[in-house]
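Quick one, T. Sequence first:
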Amino acid sequence: MGDWMAGCCQLLEPLYNALKQKILASDYIQADESPIKVLDSDKKGSTHQGYQWVYHDPVQKLVLFNYRKGRGRNGPKELLAVYHGYLQCDGYTVYDKIGADPKITLAGCLVHARRKFHDAQDSDKKRAQTALALFRKIYLEERDVKEEAPDDFGKIKPLRDEKIRPLLAQIKKWIGTEQFKVLPKSLIGKAMAYFINQYPKLDAIFGDGRIELDNDLIENAIRPMAIGRKNYLFCGSHGAAQNAAMLYSFFGSCKMQDINPREWLDELLPGYQTKV
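Structure tokens:
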């Protein structure tokens, strides 16, 4: 079966490269990474911790998985070398290094910022819930904005500037009055510090109406792989991990386009063995 999959991926590689170029030609993408265990002949008796780096174009509804042996910046730096535009990501420091490239503008993720305050409720319920209430207002306003201007990105931007951006600034102002009252190493202190550190990237969201408030869409694209890890446990080699990345890219993009992946593959490779 492994040889069958490898042969299939060899035929599909030109299409994978075309998908990669199409996504990189966009000027707004989301990025995230997820671990995957891989058998390595140099590590007898244990598995290697590799990573699937994922790049998602929310506007064109396309996703690219790209396997790398590590979580360092070399992988995304190489893949994004020709990219110009917004890169939406979480607070992982590698993305800050990628964002040092003047061609790239980093946009943050409100869900990651909100999650820090959610996790701080047990240690400082009052302050955590004050922040969470403001985040809730942001998402309620975002829902109204999307209903008022569905897919009209030109209208979404000024509506967000009017209704949502001030709420984000309000969180920052509130933290400015409260941060000195809490321990920096407490959960609420860390949540506040994360928000302040990420604020320039969070504010960059309002630079373009296409940019999502968070990275939830790319996390949804990664979810099938997370489920798969519990079933197949590991990939048989680094090459197999990249083949998996290729198929996750195609099938994930099919799902976003409401296309049946099996029917798509049957049509793309007629006569190829599609039954094992």
